[in-house]
Amino acid sequence: MVVLAAVPARADMKLAYVDVQRALNECEAGKRAKVDFKNRIQSIEGRLQKEQGEVQALKDELEKKGMLMKPEQRQNLQDEYMNKLKNFERNYKDSKDDLERRDNEITAKIVHDLAQVIRQIGESGGYTMVMEKGSILWGASGIDITDQVIRSYNAANVAPGTLGGADEGGSVQHAGASAPNSFGSEAAKHSTISR
Asked: What are the b/e assignments for 95-111, b being 16+ CB within 10 Å?
């Protein structure tokens, strides 16, 4: 009696991975965005420190001279202190929210472009799958294509967020693969220009 077992055909697989955070930090657009972000932070910090100094000066004046003032003067100074304190707290929160929003916007644009480059390298290089380094436990350095992605993106020399565009139906969507737009969105959640 002969037993035949069905043996699945083994397809040759070509795998690669990309460290998206490193690509984001080392590509020219990422470097420029990081410098712009740091400059914006310094500008905001300077403005907020000035406001904080004004609030502190009013508080000190209230503590030192408040008891010596007429009630109306003291109340006016307390009102001014409270208004400046509220404005400072609001400006601090607004500035923090604005920085976070801007960080997310530029990160998403650059990661979108990186996704386009990764897809192009994956398709032209005949890769079965390209994974994000953060989602794998180990990978041989020979399958890390991060440097190639950085070089290709830098060579494109485009404004962040302008590579690719809407899918015109010309590219093939492979089973289980995310579209570049969804990849960019997911990778942007785990990456940031402010790191």
From this structure: beeeeeebbeebbbbbb
